[in-house]
């Protein structure tokens, strides 16, 4: 109930402002040239068996030690093990459900049949598996910068679509194959990332080069990460689809006999949609938002670095595979929302933003999920504001939705690992950082904010930044931002200001502006006098109130804190204004009350003055 009330109230108060013209787009400075390192590269030949719901694969993993340390063991992630037994950490934490979908008859698994040094001794017998993680002792240590090549063969059993991977749709002929092959864990900052795969947690992978040949029955169309390195070739009753992907952290593919492709161009990037017309045929909507969002993020943050972006339509009955990001490939779908609700556009704009965060800045998505989902959610809602499009939930715009979501639980910090959250995960990791970043952008100005984001990307593209790196990059451009990083992201307090009643007397006017919230963000203060003259002052965000006094002769009529509504994350703006006229209220009738509410709404909208 509270949530609905907030949605309605906020949409009334804020929606017109959100649709107001934003500053024109500014081109970000061109990012420093950066070449992605080939740390973990894969050359794999795999075969999809749609009847058995399996993928069999073999090939080579080439791992170059990216650290100054000598490595005596490797760690390999076998994600599908999470669905192999109800005793897995993932299924115990999730209770067998994920994002509203349950795992019912969805057993998945992955079984390694070969793991050996290339042309050398077996490594499998001496390896130990714990949950989804395989520890592989090395017969000879791997020196800094040295390359090791592993010969692998395995079989993956795909679940009925669950937690973003598996099969479903018409006659179970749709496949979204993710988290499906033996995957190198990350060695970073002097240690292997051996955090187990948690139900709330996404991923952390190294950059590398992927060369895949995917065999599927001839009637299937296969879409994958990267670019097709050649057209499919037919061999008997099968077709083989070759893909090449460089500078990426993962590989996923989709397959269906029902895919129909549509293409569009966004700058230098080809966008290819694998649409399922049987699911409603949303090609124009997919491509429209994809072209716009890709161009916008490229202009704001730095160019999209790949020649192609692939969009996968997902059947409604396989919704658990929808709304997911891989490098150069995203999945959409309406997730059951009404076709005209704008949800598809919101999902596509969000998933495309992931092509920057974290696909170019490979953060540890489990340990610092807000750097992944928060920056992405911000980018998506910012695209809506810039484009003026209705992305989201019908009449409720996505930024208002995020503000309402944040308002439902503002006392949660955003900087915890994914596995330390429960139901508040979405608020903490998506909505709160998104409205916070929108606030930061408004406080420092769009041009400076985008320049800082672009500088962060340029410095950390194709590397593994942390929240501390993000903070350092932003502060290098914008100055000290303790109020944002320490108090807002890392704290539980809120943004709040209030103005006390105006006192107009024979000796002049006085009014006090004080910070009522814990977050020491500075705020502008607009004073309007009886003559119509205005004065713009500032509260520095400190604990001391701003005591204002003005000489007699031109009484103060109104004081408004944050008149341009830069503090988007401020939840209660009712006390931000003080109005001399409102002393008439107690004995006034309907007209005066209407005037009061009109004035309240006007100051909420930031249109005063
Ligand atoms: Zn996301």
Q: Keywords for this structure?
A:
disordered C terminus, eight-stranded mixed beta sheet, disordered N terminus, alpha+beta, binds zinc ion, 11 helices, 25% helix, 609 residues, five-stranded mixed beta sheet, 30% strand
List the helices and strands and how they pair.
Blueprint (H helix, E strand, L loop, with lengths): L1 H18 L20 E10 L4 E11 L6 E7 L11 H6 L2 E2 L2 E2 L6 E9 L10 E3 L2 E10 L4 E11 L8 E3 L5 E4 L5 E2 L2 E2 L2 E2 L15 E10 L3 E4 L2 E2 L4 E3 L2 E11 L4 E4 L3 E7 L2 E7 L7 H19 L6 E5 L11 E3 L2 E3 L11 H11 L15 H19 L4 E2 L2 E2 H10 L17 H20 L1 H15 L6 H12 L3 H8 L7 E3 L3 E3 L2 E8 L7 E7 L4 E6 L6 E5 L5 E6 L15 E3 L10 H16 L4
Parallel strand pairs: 1-15, 22-23, 23-25
Antiparallel strand pairs: 1-2, 2-9, 3-8, 3-12, 4-5, 6-9, 7-8, 10-11, 11-20, 13-14, 15-19, 16-20, 17-19, 18-19, 21-22, 24-25, 26-27, 28-30, 29-30, 30-33, 31-32, 31-34, 34-35
The structure holds zinc ion.
